[in-house]
Amino acid sequence: MRPHVELIQEDDYVWHAAELPAGEGRASERRLSVDEEDGSSSLRVDFHTDWGRGPGIHHANTEYYVLDGQIDYGGRKIGKGGYVYAPKGVPTDYLKIAEGTRLLHYREYGDAGFDPVESLGGARSWAEAREEVIVIDSEAMNWDAVPNPGPMPGLFIKYLHVDPVTGFYTRLVHAQEGWSDHRLAHHPCYEEAYTTQGLMEYNFGTLDLGTYFFRPARVKHGHFTTMEGGATWLLRSDGELANWYTQREWVRWGGDGVNYGPAGLQEEPHPPVRWSHSTHDLATPWRSDEDMRQMTASWQFQIDQGQDNSAVKHQGTGADPSLIAILKAMDAANLQGGHGGHDHSHDHAHDHAHDESATPDWGFSGREVEHPDERTGTHAHNWGTRVDWKDGDPIPAPIISSLPVRSRSRGRWDGDGM
């Protein structure tokens, strides 16, 4: 399983000698994301000389996408936007890559292994191999409207590869300027993207040229706004990207610092210092007026379509939803116990005393929302693994990851408020 990476600007990665066995030439790679269990990886590769290797068989489902430069697959030359998909265990033709080429290189369900063959015609596929080699000039393709673009139109797609069995797919996605989604989402599959053009903002940071994320299944993310010129990225998922939305989200944690505080270490006896992390404790308006305008427009579009949506507000402002939830739970407990005849519902916009002896029971909902194999399946030890979900199955609970692994993320937003 790969770790959650969000966001990382590719300039924050170090260069390594590219792992391209059986090839001749010199190249360097940035390892955007690596699965140490099966060798899967997402790489940014620069070629310092002409490079090439003859026909052979890859040990992983392998993809090449040209950012700049030129590749030659079996005599077909493609420049920027060129895409080659070489399935695991399937014989592939020779590949030549021109000096100065920059590309994205992906390996899935296997490592960099490559078995050269004498000729393409005499090579046999592995017994378990399926699919065929795909070669595409994506620059010559038309953009299609995304069937389910979120709350409003404005997303467009170019399908590069779709696995008919697993639903794994690679595609280019473009969000036009002003496209927004005011909700958080989680998915049954992983999602990764590399930004090839433009600027988008969301709760984990700024998606601009060269930024990358790898988000395991079920991790919540969202609050998208698209800035001038729109944004384009190459996006991959290891299954169909079902969207499960959340609104009025909140996360709050805290505790008592017994030997530390804002001033530093405090070893001498002292009253514990409250220490917490929440947008309501750390609130600084990081969303611009344009962010709020776009998210409000997204919300309004849903309202106009007859959807039940919560109004958008700047995270960390207004009534704290975590406290409202606690007060409502206390009300429920007090009503069960009589609460002195206080039997009306309210939204806690007014102040009144609550019985501190109440013991509100939040109840246990985990098993009601988890996937049937959550605790017994092969990957029960790792919640971030793809869920084999289909319509009618329970929706698996989200994974809250407010502060994922990342380097010097470019962006205004801090990832809190999930």
From TrEMBL:
Short name of one Pfam family: DUF4437
Basic and acidic residues compositional bias, start-end: 340-357, 367-377
Domain of life: Bacteria
Region called Disordered, residue ranges: 335-418
Name used for this protein in its record: DUF4437 domain-containing protein
Species of the source: Nocardioides soli
